[in-house]
Specification:
The structure is a homodimer. Chain A is of the alpha/beta class. Chain A has one domain: Spore Coat Polysaccharide Biosynthesis Protein SpsA, Chain A (Alpha-Beta Complex). The first copy, chain A, is built from seven helices and nine strands, in the order βαββαβαββαβαααββ. The first copy, chain A, is globular. Chains A and B meet through α5 and α6 of A and α5 and α6 of B. Chains A, B: It comes from Halobaculum marinum. Chains A, B: It holds the Pfam family CofC.
Chain lengths: ~210, ~210
């Protein structure tokens, strides 16, 4: 567990967080996506991962970077095919919008399993570790069930990580409440600076923004 | 860890799941809430808990039951005050709509800590265990942060359980997708029988219902 594990972090700076367009301008969405990426990269580093960006455009960040303009699935699979993960040389793939991800939650990915999967809300796959040279991803639709199936198809053992902090990708207005409630990094600071506050109603807590 | 832990399961049969009223009739919401309760009670039993319903009306179920018409917070606090949880005699409080809760996820609540908390999406508290005679609940608004504070105020040690399966309470249409995707009990069966299917779009997977 002491060796650092390579972690690929896909990022699309050109089209950030379109489902937040009802509350944030395009420029704000870019800033907020950058803040979340800051948090994810810092948490990965603290959890013993060596992150590498897989970006659709150069970001000029101080972190190793692979630029690939193709859609997410094709770009990740190209790295998996080239990299050939193995038990001695695992590769993680961690989404850039996991603003709640703590080092402790991310560390849970590092345990045993040829393929380790952390589901997102609504059927996605927010983080995974592969130690199998044959496992490939398909992020379209309910990818989590597809990934369970794909792992079995290549004979890989699967371990599922049950984590709220890894499940909460920040896509929609309601998710911003979870960042304000549970976050403690750059993304939360950005939202506070932008005027967002919690709005406690009878159901789940939401957010309001100062005019 | 071998002793069974008492678990209180609040349930309001008279006003089930109002935020699902756009997709389910009142009678259907009652049936679906009952199916989720079946799943939660079975999972608690399998995880070594002894569940007791805290219901606003008699349910005639084959499970110990306390009837208290008061709102959630008052009813739970009355039990906490009467029961005086301690390290030797902990008490769990687990929401009835955790349709994804597995025995394994619920078992994680049983570990150490004067107060053990599992957050829900949007700031709620979906499950807790108290070993403190002084800890009280307040389920209004962002209860999770309030419960962290309340535990500290009474000098209780806190352990947070980071679980997607415990975080996903089933309140809204979008949550039904998670039951179809990840559930394997009565609630999932009920949704399938009622004609619900996954609807994979570009974002999170949602549900559609056969006409």
């Amino acid at each position: 567990m002491s060796d650092r594990v390579d972690a690929l972090v896909p990022f699309a700076p050109d089209r950030p967080k379109t489902r937040l367009s009802d509350v944030l301008t395009p420029a704000e969405r870019r800033e907020f996506a950058d803040a979340m990426l800051d948090d994810v990269l810092a948490a990965l580093d603290a959890a013993g991962f060596s992150p590498r960006l897989l970006s659709t455009d150069p970001t000029n960040r101080d972190v190793p970077e692979t630029v690939d303009e193709r859609p997410l699935t094709a770009a990740v699979n190209a790295v998996l095919a080239d990299r050939e993960p193995s038990p001695e040389s695992p590769l993680a793939v961690v989404m850039a919008d996991l603003a709640l991800a703590t080092p402790r939650a991310l560390s849970r990915l590092r345990g045993s399993g040829d393929v380790v999967l952390a589901a997102g809300l609504g059927g996605g796959t927010n983080a995974l570790v592969s130690r199998s040279p044959d496992f490939r991803v398909d992020y379209h639709g309910a990818s989590y069930l597809d990934h369970l199936r794909a792992a079995r198809t290549v004979g890989a053992t699967v371990r599922e990580v049950d984590s709220r902090l890894l499940a909460t990708d920040i896509d929609e207005r309601a998710d911003l409440a979870d960042v304000l409630l549970h976050g403690d990094g750059a993304a939360r600071d950005w939202l506070v600076d932008a005027g967002f506050e919690l709005d406690a109603g009878d159901g789940r807590v939401s957010v309001v923004r100062e005019e």
